[in-house]
Amino acid sequence: MPSPLAHALAGLTVHIATAPSDELASRRRAAVTVGAALAPDLDFAWKLIDGVNHHQAQGHSIGVGLGLAAAVTLVAAAGRVPRAWGLGLAALAGWSSHLLLDLLNVDTNPPIGLMALWPFSDAYFKSPWPVFLDIGRTLNWRTVWHDTVAIA
């Protein structure tokens, strides 16, 4: 899977590529987009609660991304943020960048792939042409070296 650094850079790239010229310098919009690009990996925390691996399941889906976009839009509208719907779309674009990067990685930890289309489908999807190396989840020198190369 791409590293958190890769997801943050993708979120920042999405912000720069999609922001209207008058919002390019908006820290709020950049933070929402980068935060949304990082957010799907919060599913790692659920394992601390129930001991079950939830990574790459429903939390890595367009359905949750649409829910996030709606929530961001509603909160921004309640706070009278101009172009609240644009902030919601920025959150969805950041979230989607995470899904795209994860679809394009070497996946070695079952389940292989993402539930990218949940709730419309429970199937796991994976690109047949990986671009990114996987990130190891153990702490030994071999994994640290591999992860360093993958991040580079």
Please give the largest β-sheet.
Answer: none
Average pLDDT, to the nearest integer? 88
The structure class reads mainly alpha
Please state roughly what percent of the residues sit in beta strands, choosing from under 5%, 5-15%, 15-25%, 25-35%, 35-45% or over 45%.
Answer: under 5%
Basic shape: globular
Question: What is the count of β-strands?
Answer: 0
Order of helices and strands: HHHHHH
End-to-end Cα distance:
13 Å
Uncertain segments are none
Over all CA atoms, what is the radius of gyration?
Answer: 16 Å
Summarize the amount of helix as a percent range: 40-55%
Number of alpha- plus pi-helical segments: 6
Describe the structure.
The protein is mostly helical. It has helices at residues 4-18, 27-38, 46-50, 62-78, 84-103, 141-151. Helix 1 (4-18) crosses helix 5, helix 2 (27-38) runs parallel beside helix 5 and helix 4 (62-78) packs antiparallel against helix 5. The model has no long low-confidence stretch (mean pLDDT 88).
